[in-house]
Specification:
5-stranded antiparallel beta sheet; 8 helices; alpha+beta; single chain; about 25% strand
């Protein structure tokens, strides 16, 4: 039988307790809005307790309707809504006994906020962000009983985890650099070969000039040389953030 990963005893493990909780949405929303505003990307960041959910008798799983989104964006004077749908927190408390007879306690809180993004022009949500991260505590003692009393309480963990949850989605909402492979044509004629040497020397403007010469020389033809030059010129403009 295959055991769940979080139930397999670790070496020197003495005790384990795993609990599941809902985070504090008010704390998370405030922390999220503050973290987002600090990036200075959006003109304004507004916090709103949505009246569409406040009077529900039973929790709703469905997303906001287009009418609800249009009404709320109009009332707030904003271009987009970011709805905090859920914050799930899994707390794993683990006590291990070392070879020296001491007890080592670790607490790992896995945090997973769920956000839905809406814009008034769309019937369906723009995107959902459901990313997770963890925060970690550790301590040691000569007694596992004392270690249990020294450890941070679930209440304090939920408070800190709910606040930290607000920072998790921010990087997925803002422009950021990622590494990617790019290719260019470097052989077949003297223009491409010369430009390839220039690229290796980071002389992008000179390489562009050679590619442009090749493109103009073949402007009245539909051939591969012209296509190679156009492809490389597109790379040049990307390198120039254009």
């Amino acid at each position: 039988r295959i055991m769940p990963k979080d139930t397999i005893p670790r070496r020197y493990e003495y005790a384990r307790r795993v609990t599941y909780h809902n985070g504090n949405p008010v704390t998370t929303a405030e922390a999220f809005a503050e973290a987002l505003a600090e990036q200075n990307y959006f003109d304004a960041v507004i916090i709103c307790d949505s009246t569409f959910r406040a009077h529900d008798i039973l929790p709703r799983e469905e997303t906001l309707s287009k009418r609800e989104v249009q009404e709320l964006t109009s009332d707030l004077g904003v271009d987009m809504l970011i709805a905090l749908e859920n914050i799930q927190i899994k707390i794993t408390r683990l006590i291990s006994k070392t070879e020296g007879g001491r007890y080592w306690g670790t607490i790992d809180a896995k945090i997973q906020p769920l956000l839905t993004l809406y814009i008034p022009q769309r019937t369906l949500p723009l995107v959902q962000i459901n990313k997770s991260d963890s925060i970690f505590w550790e301590d040691s003692s000569i007694s596992h009983t004392r270690l249990n009393t020294q450890n941070i309480t679930d209440e304090d963990i939920l408070k800190e985890a709910s606040e930290y949850a607000g920072s998790i989605p921010v990087k997925y909402l803002l422009p950021h650099w990622t590494k990617g492979a790019r290719y260019y044509y470097s052989g077949g004629n003297s223009y491409l070969r010369d430009a390839a040497i220039m690229v290796k020397n980071e002389e992008w403007d000179n390489a562009y000039a050679r590619w442009k010469q090749l493109y103009d020389k073949n402007s009245k033809k539909k051939n591969k040389k012209r296509m190679f030059a156009a492809f490389n010129i597109a790379l040049y403009y990307e390198m120039k953030d254009s």
